[in-house]
Design brief:
The complex is a heterodimer of chains A (177) and B (215).
Chain A lengths: L4 H19 L23 H6 L29 E9 L9 E6 L10 E5 L5 E6 L4 E2 L2 E8 L8 E6 L6 E3 L2 E3 L2
Parallel strand pairs in A: 1-8, 1-9
Antiparallel strand pairs in A: 1-4, 2-3, 2-6, 5-6, 6-7
Chain B lengths: L2 H22 L9 H23 L4 H25 L1 H7 L6 H21 L1 H4 L3 H25 L7 H21 L16 H4 L14
Helix pairs in contact in B: 1-2, 1-8, 2-3, 2-7, 2-8, 3-4, 3-5, 5-7, 7-8
Chain lengths: 177, 215
């Protein structure tokens, strides 16, 4: 005796649906990039954008606000062994000095909820946060960088990933009014 | 229970213990919050249960139901612990924007619930043995493969030897599922007469012809 044809149809349909759902999923989550030193490159404007002087604004990605807490204290450095660095620019690719950026990530000694700091960009728009090496948070190491300074720029929050053993990540931001 | 099935269930138990040892000694859980430890260990046990399930399906219905129920409870505790650990991350993982490994887990959970419902409604549905085997056993196998895939893709306590344990559990489960779905006992072909326990197991050959007009 064979299974009922309707059952076979249902089973094949479920298999097909599962295949489509997996094929259309994002390995790291929608909008997240591997920004570690061994990853696919830094988050931020491309070389061509920088050369043209027109940088596309950074857009908050899904999960970017996970575990965000407003007004994090200035506690940089958080540790040693991993560096999160980047440059904050406007849409004309000009560096923005003195803007507040928040960085938070999971380490072996501190959860993502607690391991956070605010930092201000220097006169060339650069920021740098040192922390202990990142460990997996919900399946892979990830680093959050957000701009939450009250001011003329729109707030933006990013969730990007790194790999075990990475020693740094670069996350550049382009702010828009 | 014949020798091969007994050995398979024993192997699943050994793999479960090995998984517990690997996970509990992993640096990922050193100093971790208790809810993360609970979440990891319940998931490890659930994988072992899934590895044993197809081998319990024929002739050990009571054990099959008990282990299946335990697996469902373990998976629910696993998810609940993650929600307690970090609601933001858990809800993001379960959203359409979550990573592939989380989508695999979510689909696996849904399939497990469907499989459990089919098991509970087995008699009421009145489906033939092959029809029930295809949907109950087939979805269970799919849930197991997705669950193991989720665990392998997850950077956590079950890396290195843990991955070996996970893959071995997956292979054991698939092998048992193939044996159960094809309706063959390991080592010998089925006789044409249904086994006495097959009617209740739902994974053996059709114990009685389906009522007219019903699947």
């Amino acid at each position: 005796m064979r299974p009922h044809p309707v059952a076979i149809t249902v089973f094949v349909a479920v298999l097909w649906t599962v295949g489509v759902l997996l094929a259309t999923s994002s390995l790291h989550g929608t909008g997240a990039r591997d920004v570690g030193v061994r990853g696919s490159g830094p988050e931020g404007p491309s070389v061509a954008e920088l050369a043209s002087g027109r940088c596309a604004p950074t857009i908050t990605n899904p999960g970017g606000t996970n575990n965000y807490v407003p007004r994090a204290p200035y506690t940089n450095p958080l540790g040693a062994g991993f560096t999160v660095a980047g440059t904050v620019r406007d849409e004309a690719c000009r560096p923005l000095p003195g803007v507040r950026v928040q960085v938070w990530a999971q380490t072996a000694t501190a959860s993502e909820q607690r391991n956070r700091t605010s930092v201000r960009t220097d006169d060339q728009g650069r920021y740098r946060v040192d922390t202990d090496p990142l460990v997996a948070q919900f399946g892979e190491p990830n680093v959050h960088v957000g701009y939450d300074d009250p001011g003329p720029w729109r707030r933006v929050f990013l969730r990007n990933v790194t790999r075990d053993g990475d020693t740094g990540a670069q996350v550049d931001l382009v702010l828009s009014p | 229970m014949n020798g091969v099935r007994g050995a398979a269930v024993l192997t699943a138990g050994v793999l479960g213990l090995a998984g517990l040892v690997v996970a509990s000694t992993s640096p990922h859980l050193a100093g971790a919050e208790p809810v993360l430890v609970v979440s990891t260990l319940t998931a490890t046990l659930a994988v072992a249960g899934l590895a044993a399930q197809p081998w319990l399906a024929r002739g050990r219905v009571g054990a099959h139901v008990a282990v299946g129920s335990a697996v469902l409870v373990l998976v629910v505790v696993h998810v609940a612990a993650l929600l307690v650990l970090s609601p933001d991350d858990a809800l993001f993982a379960m959203s359409p924007d979550g990573p592939t490994r989380a989508r695999m887990a979510l689909i696996s959970l849904v399939l497990l619930v469907v499989v459990a419902c089919l098991g509970v409604l087995r008699r009421r549905l009145g489906w033939s043995g092959p029809t029930f085997r295809l949907l109950h056993g087939g979805f269970a196998l799919l849930a197991t493969v997705l669950g193991v895939g989720h665990a392998v893709l997850t950077d956590g306590a079950l890396e290195a030897w843990g991955t070996v344990v996970l893959l071995a559990s997956g292979v054991l489960s698939v092998a048992g599922g193939v044996v159960a779905v094809l309706g063959r006992r390991p080592g010998r072909r089925l006789s044409r007469r249904p086994a006495p326990a097959a009617r209740a197991s739902g994974t053996g050959p059709a114990a009685a012809p389906p009522p007219p007009g019903r699947r």
